[in-house]
Amino acid sequence: MSTHKNSGEIQHIEATEKYALQGGEHVEAVSDGVVDIDEGFDPVAVKRVMRKIDMRLIPILTFMYLVSAMDRANLALARAANQNQMVIDLQLQIGNRYSIATLAFFIPYIILEVPSQAGLRQFGAKLWLGGATVLWGVMMLCMGFVETWQQLTALRALLGVFEATLFPGAAYLISCWYPRRFMATRMSYFFIGAMFLQAFSGIMAWGIGDSLHTKGGLHGWQWIFIIYGLITIFIGICAVILIIDFPDKASFLTDKEREIVLTRIQRDRNDAVYDHLTFKKVMVHLADVRIWLFGLFFCAAALCIYALAYFLPQILAGMGFDNKMSQILTAPPSFYSPIPCVIMAKLADKYNWRMHMVALNAVITVVGVAMFSQLAKEQVAARYVGVFLATGGCQALIPLITAWSQTCIRSQSKRAVMSATVVAWGGIGGILASVSFRQAEIPHYTTGIFLTIGLNAFAAVGSFLLWLYFMSQNRKADRGEKVLEGDPDFRFQ
Question: What is the pLDDT of residue 286?
Answer without folding.
Answer: 92
